[in-house]
Specification:
Layout (H helix, E strand, L loop, with lengths): L1 E6 L8 H16 L4 E6 L10 H7 L8 H19 L2 E7 L7 H10 L6 E4 L2 E4 L5 E7 L12 H11 L4 E7 L6 H20 L1
Parallel strand pairs: 1-2, 1-3, 3-6, 6-7
Antiparallel strand pairs: 4-5
Helix pairs in contact: 1-6, 2-3
Length: about 200
């Protein structure tokens, strides 16, 4: 089993989503001792955003790209290769202002490439990253799961399914900024959800 752990917190220390994503990856290794973990920490190594220059590079035939364009596309290619090689994705996602971090959005924009990770057919779009499982660990200061203020779950479900990843488990660590008791309750609930998700 190849596990790709993606941390998207801007924090280098003290991130709940990073800590809990690590717990998920460790529990998977406990069940599959031969598993290999590849860590992509977007906070420590931010991926560049999708801008006009990047679009120009992507839409230029490979043999016609400048060295700068080729280098930019190669950055996205590396992320795509990691996802293609993974059997399981573990994604740590803090909620920032009711949405995902820009760091994670840049990663999504990099791996969503027509003809490579999805394609359009006469029957509509088809995801090409099939047969993978994803665990998404969401951490938030408030309580949002299963309410209209949780925009992250439906968005990531949609994006991952668009790319072909439909087996997705969500873990929620909530109320982390609502005082010590709420924080501990939120973490305890998240650990319980992790055990349930891994054993499912």
């Amino acid at each position: 089993m190849n596990i790709l752990q993606i941390n998207s917190s801007a924090r280098s220390q003290g991130s709940y989503s990073t800590r809990l994503a690590g717990v998920v990856a460790e529990r998977l290794v406990d069940q599959h001792p031969q598993a290999k973990i590849t860590l992509r920490d977007l906070g420590r190594n931010p991926h560049p955003m999708l801008d006009e220059q990047t679009l120009g590079a992507l839409f230029t035939p490979a043999e016609q790209r400048t060295p700068e364009q080729a280098a930019r596309v190669a950055l996205d290619d590396a992320l795509i290769s990691e996802v293609q090689a993974a059997d399981v994705l573990v994604i740590g996602v803090p909620m920032y202002n009711f949405s995902i971090p820009t760091l994670l959005k840049n990663w999504i924009d990099a791996i969503a490439r027509v003809g490579v990770t999805f394609r359009y057919t006469e029957n509509g779009p088809e995801g090409l990253l099939k047969g993978k499982k994803a665990y998404v660990v969401q951490a938030s200061g408030g309580v949002h799961s299963h309410t209209p203020t949780d925009t992250i779950t439906p968005y990531l479900k949609t994006v991952l399914a668009f790319l072909g990843i439909v087996d997705v488990e969500f873990v929620y660590a909530e109320g982390l900024s609502m005082g010590p008791d709420a924080e501990q309750n939120g973490l305890d609930a998240a650990y319980q959800q992790i055990e349930q998700a891994i054993s499912a």
